[in-house]
Design a protein that fits this description.
alpha/beta, eight-stranded mixed sheet, eight-stranded parallel sheet
């Protein structure tokens, strides 16, 4: 039995046994859909991961960047560096992978991926040994940390490459004082023999909401030129930010000298630039990840709680609107699985998410074309936040399709 695609019908999965509502009638992935994953079975809550769509997204973004002289670092932390999904980056020709979690880099090495790895969160001094062991590159903004990395690189006899981060106004990581950055670069180049100064980089849009404008990128190029003049050679990497910098790629406004972007969400979800900035990533798949949850209760109930109102399970004082009695369904998935109910989006536009606790989600199904029954499977699109939660949850089962 073939699955009815939500984008074609606008409806939740049909009212059948859970296995049939979501894929092959036997509960396993068919060879045609799952490729080498034919032994899979559906278990809910479930996150379907479309590997073909992921690989196509990677290739499309990488091609657009290469056309402007930019190589990407594939940032995989947003989907918890799931090895089967990271394999798509290898097949698509990506030359470097990035994560902020040592545990993920370690797992990818154990999986047999031999691409260079970049630690994209400023390392802790206490994890210097693991950073050197599992990452060939790291982003840095503290000389004291780099000295610890240098000692470990010498001890392990494993040279380690560093990218110095410039603070560009987003106020997360980076050297704010440009002279301090140049001095640190000279120190690495001349006095830390275990380290190789690979380049400079910047980050915007993650804390301070600063946009990756051409001016910001040009400022980074100027910093790179200052460093190059101080050390007497050309830097390998000038990393002009993350997904938000793809807007400048789309506008063909990347200044000469930027040769790397660290791209995560712009490949995995390809959603944020369109939603928040009006930059639609044309031709990209937005359904690499689909969350599925099973209905465990379906009843008509009042829409306003009955009794004295206090606080919810998280200590929040909530407000409720009375719309009379309406059909609603209870799903066996909750905030512990996906984070915020604002970060999941029913594939059926007639379904409304109206509330959630740790392990339950309440949806309004009054306006659905077909009745929702116990055992039905309801599908949701996810964004970066819910992808981060669902891929990292041991209780959300993964189901791979090609």
């Amino acid at each position: 039995m073939t699955e009815t695609k939500p984008e074609e019908t606008g409806k939740p999965a049909e009212n059948k046994a859970p296995e049939e509502a979501c894929g092959a009638g036997t509960g396993g992935a068919s060879e045609g859909r799952g490729g080498g994953f034919a032994s899979q079975v559906h278990r809910y809550p479930e996150l379907e991961i479309n590997l073909s769509h992921l690989e196509e997204n990677i290739r499309r973004v990488r091609r657009a960047c290469l056309d402007q002289g930019i190589e990407i670092t594939g940032v995989v932390k947003g989907m918890s560096a799931i090895p089967e999904a990271v394999d798509c980056y290898v097949r698509a020709g990506v030359k470097m992978l990035g994560s902020s979690r040592i545990s993920q880099l370690r797992a990818l090495k154990a999986h047999g991926i031999d691409l260079p790895m970049m630690m994209i969160r400023i390392p802790m001094k206490s994890e210097a040994a693991e950073v050197v062991k599992y990452a060939e590159y790291s982003l840095n903004s503290e000389l004291e940390v780099m000295e610890a990395l240098n000692r470990e690189a010498i001890r392990q006899k494993k040279p380690h490459s560093v990218v110095l981060m410039a603070e560009m106004g987003d106020l997360r990581e980076g050297f704010w004082d440009r002279d301090e950055l140049v001095d640190a670069a000279v120190k690495v180049e001349q006095s830390l023999p275990g380290l190789y100064l690979a380049g400079v980089g910047m980050n915007v849009g993650c804390y301070g909401s600063i946009v990756a404008t051409r001016d910001k990128l040009e400022e980074l190029v100027e910093i790179a030129r200052r460093v190059e003049a101080a050390i007497g050679r050309k830097l390998d990497i000038v990393s002009g930010g993350a997904t938000s910098s793809l807007m400048r790629v789309m506008d063909h406004e990347i200044p000469e000298g930027i040769n790397n972007l660290r791209v995560g969400e712009g490949i995995l979800n390809a959603r944020d630039l369109g939603v928040f900035y009006g930059y639609e990533q044309e031709g990209m798949h937005h359904d690499v990840f689909t969350l599925r949850a099973e209905v465990i209760e379906a009843k008509v109930k009042p829409t306003h709680p009955i009794g004295t109102i206090g606080v919810d399970a998280f200590g929040h004082k909530m407000s409720y609107e009375d719309h009379g009695d309406r059909a609603r369904a209870l799903l066996a998935v909750g905030k512990a699985d996906y984070g915020s109910l604002d970060d999941i989006f029913p594939c059926d536009p007639a379904i409304k998410v109206i509330g959630a606790s740790s392990d339950h989600t309440i949806i309004d199904v009054e306006d659905c074309a077909d009745p929702i029954r116990v055992g039905d499977i309801v599908e949701f699109d996810v964004d970066y936040g819910s992808m981060l939660y669902t891929t990292g949850s041991v209780d959300v089962h993964r189901y791979f399709v090609r």
